[in-house]
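Good morning C.,

I know you're traveling, so I'll keep this short. The sequence:
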Amino acid sequence: MSQPNANAAMDPLVQRKHFARAVDLLGGVKAAAKVIGVSEVGMVALLSGAEPLEPRVLERASKALIAHADACRAMERRISPAFVANLTHAQIGGN
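The tokens, ready to paste straight into the viewer:
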């Protein structure tokens, strides 16, 4: 697999598509706007292309995704049946 060219700029439409997916992963417009620190109207403007995606917005979104992923990993460790400590007595065959 080849490495991306560090000198090649991302296509703005592709970037906006990735940003829209990030917004979905963060819980939608309202939730993402809150964690990124913009209004819902501002978020809609970013998603539509009416406002440019500034590097600070992308950085905030990236940090929010990392925090979300960390929280998901921590929760997975608390509910995964792969860890016996997460099971009830009934689930492990106890009384």
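Safe travels,
E.
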